[in-house]
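Consider what follows.

. . .
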Amino acid sequence: MSKLGTLGARLHRGEIGYDFVGKRFIWYGLSILITITAILGLSVRGLNMGIEFEGGAVFTIEKTSVSVSQAEKYAEEASGHDAIVQTLGKDGLRIQVATIDTAAADKVSAKLATDLGIPEKDITGELVGPSWGDQVANKAWQGLVIFMFLVVIYLAIAFEWRMAVAALVALIHDITITVGIYALVGFEVTPGTVIGLLTILGYSLYDTVVVFDSLKEQTKDITKQTRWTYSEIADRSINGTLVRSINTTVVALLPVAGLLFIGGGVLGAGMLNDISLSLFVGLAAGAYSSIFIATPLVADLKEREPQMKALKKRVLAKRAQAGQDDAPTATVSDEQPYDDEDEDAAPAVVGPRNQPASRNRGRGRPSGKRR
């Protein structure tokens, strides 16, 4: 842990760093590939919508010795529709059958009790109408659109429109990947999934805003100096907050991983699977997008400005004049403001210097001291 802290301090001071912005086209290509895979998975497999969105019946059985595959067969035979069966705890089952009405649900419940060899009173049935599912879906879309709109407005006011655009692209990237993973894995989409999606957007924005805030502070009066380009300062902002972002993401992922792999996988809690998968994938995608997409995209947009283009020319010209191949290693921070007087001063002399001796110094005295 001490080594990680030392690494974070060195990254913050600019002593070491990784060229995230310089290799941005690699990250763009990787993100596009992942996004296309998610979209293809969504197009081919589609989403496994829960009964809250499609309507249907859910039958809960607290204790039975029948396997999941056998219970699925019984439910499909009793209802005439496809059924989804999940384990609940050690011996329980959750059977979901879509698009059936109340009369059909009663018949299915009675037939299941006979096939499973249990009293019908041990089967708990719940019926959800498709109209209620439509309302849930519409409210979810409305909430997502309003959230996106407010985020863009806030970031445009607090920072600038380029950062708002970059954050919006990162959010769309995170949502697309999370939804694509749901399609590929086949997990059921429930209201818990929607809650998880809206939650991860907040986490994703948190990491992005931390980097943007550092970038905003470090680029004050950027055109008054000729040591760094905007892209280089953006890269230093990422490196300076890198360890913080990693620590925050890991701490958030650990309890979510417990919900997903232990609560959902071992204990078989279906609702935990729905919300924990969206949280787990979204948190990881959000940390990735804040580092590899949002800030490099801001740098791309800013470098198109005439002022930034002129600054880049001045920086490269000064380095060529000084015979430098790389940017300076010092970091820009509030404690180290831009100062053109320091930049234009004569370079420090490296190595021993030959100073002329004073004409009368030490004349006639072996010690060389004056009286």
